[in-house]
Structure formats: structure tokens, C-alpha cells
Amino acid sequence: MTPQEQEEAAQELLKGVEKLVLSQQKRIASKVIRLYPQSESAKIARLLLEEYKRFGQLTEDQEKIQAEWMNQVRNHWFVERNPVHNSCFFTILEGTQTPATKIVNRSKTPILYELKGPSMPWTGPYRLRAGESHEFHYTAQVRFFHDDVLVMKTLHHGQVLQLNNQDSLHVK
Question: At what angle do helices 3-14 and 40-74 cross, to 10 degrees?
């Protein structure tokens, strides 16, 4: 098969892959790499699988750190302070909303990243295809791999993190 025929066959195999769960997506990506190794889709699939693997390795360490931190917080509030617990409800008034925080992929390849909000564990990895963006309404930490280096950025309300064509990220 020519590389172009391999690419067309790989694209056919990848149709609807975003609707599948992560383990199924990984299986199909591996199949694309095995069946159509010369295609552009196989090259991108290799990159994505490698990044998923890296994020998987980080997850275990982060879960241990998160569990340790939660135990410290619980100990502080429920043992040392013994506070009175009550619920508070509030309404966001018109005009008081803060602008969304945004991650934009302006590069030609998909990127993987993980997200951590206030008092939240790391979530993801999430995939942003070329030209797509992700908005959220809280201050968050974002981590991703650039080459072989793990990069972490903190984004505040209204900030935009952009991956441009030179494969570098910029916070606006």
C-alpha cells in the first residue's frame, strides 16, 4: 500500500473513535499503528499513546500526594478545629461573572493535557484537536508534555493558554 492509501484506510478505521472510551481509543490507535505504519495518522497515534503513557505514570504519584493532602485537611478540620458545619447557597448576580479561562490548540497536531482546579485532583488527560479550545470558569493548573519535558502552568480567570504552530505555549 502507498502511504496515501494507508492514510485513507487509517482514517476509515478512526471514524467515530472519539465516541469510544479511552481504553477502546488506545486499542484502535494501536491497530492503526500496526496496520498502517507509514500513515500520518499512525505517527499522530504513536505520539498520543506515548503521552497517555506518560500521564498514566504521573497519575499514581499524584493520587498518593492527593490522598496525603486530604488526610491532612481532614485532620485539621475534623480533629483540630471541630467546626460547626452548615450549607451556604448563593446566586451569581448579572454582570458579576468572571471571564472564562481557555486553552486553545492553534497547532497542526492534537495535544494532551491534564487539568487541576482548586481543591481537585488532576483530571484527564484531555485531548484538544487542532483548532479546538476548552473553556472553564475557575483558576486551574494545566500540565502537558512539550517534547520530553513536563510543563505546568497556572491559569487565572480570563487567561488564555495557546499552543501555536511553533509548538510552544503562551499565556495571554
Answer: 40
Residue 101: which region, alpha, beta or left (left: phi > 0; alpha: psi -120 to 50)?
beta
Smallest CA-to-CA distance from 158 within 105, 104, 116, 102 is with 102
125 and 145 in contact (C-beta within 8 Å)? Answer: no
For β-strands 111-116 and 123-128, DSSP reports them as: antiparallel
C-alpha cell at 45: 497515534
On whether the CB atoms of residues 108 and 130 are closer than 8 A, the answer is yes
3-class DSSP assignment, residue 72? helix
Please enumerate in sequence order all residues whose Cβ is within 8 A of that of 37, keeping only pairs 6 or more positions apart, or say none: 6
pLDDT in tens, 10-33: 888 888 888 888 888 889 889 989
